[in-house]
């Protein structure tokens, strides 16, 4: 097919967006009402990742960061900063991107969305070192900003306001110089003098100063509208960071210049002040500053700086503040150790006393200031008065300090992140329970983090529950209910348990006790319980209704009893109720309807209705949402696979309004009003902006469906369905965080809710509860559990639990690792064991005390860490540093117990592990093949160094895998170079050494070489095999297919890619197809032609392929490129499988992960009509979203997704889902072209997500 009509189409969806930060800012972005007398209550935080903006609001009362907004930019964000034009009422955002535009944004208070103020073009699209935008510096008074490139170009813009209070931006003023490199810039605070900017630069044109760095000052003359270089001075060659000092009335102005082991105060030609940058005691590596923050307080300010080890230092400046017009002279600067945090990209301080650490890797942290460190008399400090010049700083040897646990800061909140993701496996959980389907949903296991903070993360799309109480029951319970005795009761009074042959009533209070005088029928199973009227409760049991009225002044007294019984021999099979209504489904197919009158008496409707088949389920709905007197509709599910909607209106009571045929019998029904879309308030949680009435349907074949119920006519429409399990589906209504949700029971327990943070309108999610299976559940509210409480039963167990968080549907569980993980492989046996190799450079492992001989390792001796070593200390401070030293180990991890079973330290010869695989070697004994034994092969290097790349020895370590999954060292085999890729191939070991492919078999003392092939490539980084076919990925020459001829024991390359790609990972989808990713963030799909593939099967000796004419000195054939797509994250793994039970026609999807935390899925599209629809929708959205203003940077989406090669064969599902962000006119315009309604388009979009995702 042509490139306009590819052979294959994939639908791309990002399930977890990358959370590696480009920058972050704090400000008042939403407070815009000038006339309001209410003071600003909260500050907001914006985190910019590589292609999106995340808005959080800080709640200082709870110490929590609440996510308000997530905006996809579909462009590469380069830098971000905050500014407020003088006289403005709120802060605005400035960011640069690959769009070539300088983007100014404001946050709309009414709809909490980013709006474009200006998109000022200044360069071509794309990223170049001469394109401004790498650095943004804003003047201290927000009057101007400088946009700098890495080389040559600098642009300065003047900011102003017009009479309508609109922000104006001037034409750019240039400050360019050829062959000039810029390392850092910042805007100085000089009060209301002409704006001044300072930068660290190096000019490589001048031979005399080549390689030397200078501190250059650029002044903007507002009167002449001109930029000039005002001052320049040479600075240390290791200078890397600048931090502006408050000026004008707030401080002395100037800048802190940070270099290796040195901090200096500088301001034009004023006196310089120098202080040492303290180092940890016994630390061998140099120290330099990576981030810092200045925080202004009333009448003073202080500075925090962080070095490359995470240590925080507080700097105070003593200056003369006598004159206000001219900044005072600085007398001295002083530095002292403050605390130690994870290494950050940026530090931010809120005015309410919180510090946000925008961590470079893993989670991001929010701390609260406990104190400022001023009252610590034992704190060691260094003052610039003791150092008259720069040389004296380096002469001082007493510049060390002792680290300490957090003292001045206290951790209050964590933003979870899986960045960086090194490797991921998609595996099913081992079967641990005979009656559950927990193992049916695969789980993602990811290697994440760096250093001592590394972990193996278990990623599930599940909802975490918090178990409060669990107790055993005398028998298996079928249902559980809670009820109040009076409508005025704040908490539930009774907990009712229904068994096969009876009912148990328990009181809810300080203790849970059985109630003997409840008035409930205990001899029959309870079908339903409902609090009615003011002081009444109805128990519906299989033999009738007990209507109990309690004394409001003495609820413990015996209640007044009124009973109703069905005809003789007839049983109540199902029921539903509200606070004023009861409906019964009898075994003779009749419906019996009751309502409360004005005197709270239960009155039966004088006419009964007989249904067409046995009544299986009923639902009246809920009255609490709008305080209605009665539910308007009744849903009836019958055994003829039909649902009927009946009216409850007194004028046409129990008349059929509509019917709906099903694919299976309805096992349960639930009418419920649910929010469609949420809007985020400024000082409140997200609130529903619209809601609709829905009918939830559970079917006997394990299908759950949700249909829209018209509130006027009772017609049903817009059906959505998904697979829940293999058992009949039961439903229960729960209220979590003041949001109506549906609990769904089958093989597993699920909860359904509308997501508050999703970009999709009406994004209804159905997610399983973590490790919880219930047969039924109900709301629970008591003095000890006042919100988000539920009670559930499973067999003979009763559990009271809470669900506190549903906003984040990615549940992350961590198993701590020792060093930075490199790779992992799973056990061949279904035992839940993973083998992980880990290595860290420039550290001394505290777990190794001395070298151990290889013979000791062979005898089973393992190097375990000292129990006295506190792992938490290393997680905070890292490991001791030592140049060119490695810490490396192999860990055996149990994913079932979430624990480390064994740790093998690589201690001999300063070894580091880089690759591993599990291999089954089979031995032949008298011509009979044995079953074979499993071995773990690890590729290691000794004294490995970088720049230049070298080592003293490379080898393969062979470990035997014992029956319990543990490792026993066997032998090692030396290799000529570092083995980066290896895999099991036909009961042998296949490894890649640079451009060589080598086949090994097991020997007694080492591995034995069996075959060798030299290929036309640079460095093999990954190998995949299938039958006799081998596919290799090269570090720069893309993908090469080889065939193995067993008769001649040869590997013959026969087809390769037409492009040079820097492969990071790939996966064989089938015998002829691979999907791969490169280091520039592209994914691609390649397929071997049928001609070439058939030739490898027919040519048993490979003679034809070996002698066929080579194409451009490569393989004789070329691969067909089916798909190209730009992710903007480096792919690190591909897995083939399913992430939910809602698989489409049983087909697998492709799950990929990216280095910065991306988790995405590629779904193969089958039907041509579907492909045509989404391709057309995608093209329309690219135009409409640009006009609507959603693409805030102005980057064209088609060009963005075609960054390195034209996008082909992939539909951008992330863009498709932005359809719901359009206004009604935009939706209608697109829908009309597609000949659909907006609801039909939205339904198609959501169905695509439900095929691969809960």
UniProtKB/TrEMBL annotation:
Residues 888-1220 form the RSE1/DDB1/CPSF1 C-terminal domain. One of its GO terms (cellular component) is spliceosomal complex. Residues 40-378 form the RSE1/DDB1/CPSF1 first beta-propeller domain. It is found in: Nucleus. Coiled coil: none annotated. It holds the Pfam family Beta-prop_RSE1_1st. Residues 466-803 form the RSE1/DDB1/CPSF1 second beta-propeller domain. Gene3D superfamilies: YVTN repeat-like/Quinoprotein amine dehydrogenase. Belongs to the RSE1 family. This is DNA damage-binding protein 1. It comes from Pachysolen tannophilus NRRL Y-2460. The lineage of its organism: Eukaryota, Fungi, Dikarya, Ascomycota, Saccharomycotina.
